[in-house]
Amino acid sequence: MKLKVASKILDANDRIAQENKNIFKEKGVYVINLMSSPGAGKTSLLETTIRNLGGKIKVGVIEGDITGTDDAARIDSLGIPVVQINTGGACHLDANMINEVLNDLPLDELDVLFIENVGNLVCPAEFKVGENMKVMILSITEGHDKPLKYPLMFQESSALIINKIDLKSFLDVDVEKIKKDAASLNQPIKIFEVSCKTGEGIDNWVKWIQTLIS
Ligand code: MG
Ligand code: ZN
Fold first, then answer.
1. What is residue 109's predicted lDDT score, i.e. its pLDDT?
2. What is the Å distance from ligand 1's center to 178 Cα?
3. Between the CA of residue 162 and those of 5, 35, 203, what are the distances in Å?
4. From CA 109, how far away is CA 112, in angstroms rounded?
5. pLDDT tens string 162-181
6. What's 21's domain CATH number?
7. What is the number of the ligand closest to the CA of 94?
8. CA separation for the pair 16, 128 (Å, rounded)
9. Cα–Cα distance between 56 and 92 in angstroms, integer?
10. From CA 31, how far away is CA 42, in angstroms rounded?
11. Which end of the chain has fewer CB atoms < 10 Å from its terminal CB, N or C?
12. What is the mean pLDDT of residues 47-63?
């Protein structure tokens, strides 16, 4: 595991994002920018995705957190190349932070790179980092009002993963409303209902990832 503390947010984010994108393309790495509010299950999804891919696809991970290395340690324990970025207060990752750690990953060996953004339903959606697509996770414990309250995140995401579906019977949450509202904001959004805890629905998500990068 490597740790980089981000220095400062630079201007011209989009220009650097394009630079990153060119590098990823040249290296043949498919990049997924994973976003959610804190605790929705980003790291858990990565763990279960990596296990389900069973080493057939070479995965790398960039972990973004304000501080700490807990999430990177979880990925590191799976034997996956991982870099932890500590934003030092910033509530999202930007293209420059990603650019600074590219040499710390074996990009030549990777098929897919997951970038776990800082837990936040707002500004991660505003910053490109050079990804092929953004994906968001919403835990059903967050309630069914989130798509209409935080529309940009849903509009920017190619896929919505609805997590903790195993808790449905304990909650007054309308999962159909989440799906309907997300689709109304973003017509082609792909929706997966999963439980990272029980494994329910994970196979559909993993199969989709495999088709995207094959
Ligand atoms: Mg995490
Ligand atoms: Zn932010």
1. 97
2. 22
3. 31, 12, 14
4. 9
5. 999 999 999 999 999 999 99
6. 3.40.50.300
7. 2
8. 9
9. 30
10. 15
11. C
12. 95
β 82-86/2-5 pair status: parallel
Please give the share of the chain, as a percent, with pLDDT higher than 90: 91
Q: Which two tokens stand for residue 202?
A: 């994970």
CA of 65 to the centre of ligand 1 (A): 8
Q: Which residue has the tokens 């293209």?
A: 95
From the number of C-beta atoms within 10 Å of its C-beta (0-12, 13-18, 19+), residue 54 rates as: exposed
Count of domains for the chain: 1
Residue-range definition of the domain harbouring residue 16: 2-213
Q: How far is the CA of 118 from the centre of ligand 1 (A)?
A: 8
CB of 112 within 8 A of CB of 31?
yes
Take residue 152 and report the two structure tokens written for it.
Answer: 């940009």
Ligand with the closest atom to the CA of 36:
1
The DSSP H or E segment spanning 112 is strand 112-116
Local confidence band at 7 (pLDDT 50, 70, 90 cut-offs): very low
Distance of CA 47 to the CA centre of its chain: 12
**Which amino acid appears at position 17 of this protein?**
A
| Cα-to-centroid distance, 126 and ligand 2 (Å) | 8
Ligand 2 mean position, distance from CA 112 (Å): 25
